[in-house]
Amino acid sequence: MNEPLPAFRECVAHCRFDRLPEGLEAKYASFEPGPETSLVSRDFLDGLLQRYELPRTARERIEAALEDIERDRVLFRFTEFLVRDMCSARHRCDPVFYTNMTPGCMEKSGEWYSFLLLLACVAPSMELMERRGVPKERYENVPHQQLKPQLEKIASSGDPRVHDFPWAMNFYTCSIFLFDRFLFIPYRFESPFTMYRNRESNEVAALRHGDEPFRADGQLDGINGVFDPAGRFVTVWEEDDEGITANRINPMGFVEREPTRISKRDWEPALRIGDTLLALHVPSGPGYTADRMRSSMALAIDFYERYFPELTVKGFWSESWLYDTRLSLILDPDKSQIVQVQRQLYNYPIFDGDGMLRYEVFGDRAADPLKGDIPLSTSLRKAAADYMRTGARFNTLGMIVLKEEIPRVGERPYITAQDMDEFRKVADAHLRGRDSHG
After folding, report:
1. 116 and 69 in contact (C-beta within 8 Å)?
2. Is residue 433 exposed (0-12), middle (13-18) or buried (19+ Cβ within 10 Å)?
3. How far is Cα of residue 417 from the mean position of the Cα atoms in its chain?
4. With contact defined as beta carbons under 8 Å apart, do 101 and 20 qualify?
5. Model confidence over 195-207: pLDDT tens digits?
6. Axis-axis angle for helices 73-89, 113-132 (nearest 10)
7. Distance between the two ends of the chain, CA-based, in angstroms?
8. What is the pLDDT of residues 146-156, one digit of tens each?
9. Strand duo 276-281 + 313-320: pairing
10. CB burial of residue 238 (10 Å; 0-12, 13-18, 19+)
11. In whole angstroms, what is the distance from residue 221 CA to residue 323 CA?
């Protein structure tokens, strides 16, 4: 006979996690445990340990920590619930934020819990992919992109701690896929704007929602700690039966000061909060081109439409320093692949400053290239430092590509010559002591 399932609050009180995602109690109420008595199949574990040739001491430590979880029936059942939820969370675009967790009831081996929780997701995630009919070659090596360095670290130092649990979870749960050059994972759009498409011309316009403060340069007031009392403006949203008046997001990545009016008869919504997109991630390495982006996007759409038909994917989303259109002020637009890719996207401002650029270009999110202790050894480093020396700052931007525009990636589907002219006029306007009309 199956043992009774402990109540959620009993589990929380017993396990004493240092942190636990919010919103789990309602899900736990519908959880039905399976017949398993082990968190990770020992046959699966043996194959894994043989594949990576872990020394005996590491094998024994992993097995001992697993047994600590399995002997504690409350912790075991609650961990089984967490695994069940995590395996499908990404495909459901569930916003619940999982990160490293340590149960206080594991007094001897609590530091192993986060890794074992992720490890326990591998087999059931692969079973989910198999039931969907996803070709095995598409997912069988996905978890190993994180498993390999994790097990190598355990073998070399005995350290089981997981670096960047949310990112690692994408791989252990077979939720992220590489198509040609880029990685993709389902994502629920939550940014404060709505995109519209003209029914006749197919032109796309993103309108920012109201009551947000922006600087004269069309970036959010206060980004990078820089405020603009003189040039500051606040977005509007005025909607009636006939149309909408709001501030357009120029696809060069800034919000325009003067509101735009669109007619509901001529324009229809193309992307709203709550819609599903595919988050695009950029692995390091060569091949960052518009052609490879177009190819990757097309393959990704085909895959998700075939194997995840319940997801109505509207397009693609990403946030990166690579999309900062200020880079087009310091790089040759005709030669720079960074700029060429930017111009295929509908770029938009977010409240995230230049920490990502400092990290990717100068090696540290807090790096200050103006102090003189960082070698300006590349043309990008030198150009970025020269730009920052004027008092200007970079930004991380978001981007959208709607799936209808995939065939036009490479032909600038959103950005016009006028958009680029307007960007050059307002870029760093807050530093020049004038507003965006100057």
Report:
1. yes
2. exposed
3. 30
4. yes
5. 999 999 999 999 9
6. 50
7. 78
8. 999 999 999 99
9. parallel
10. exposed
11. 19
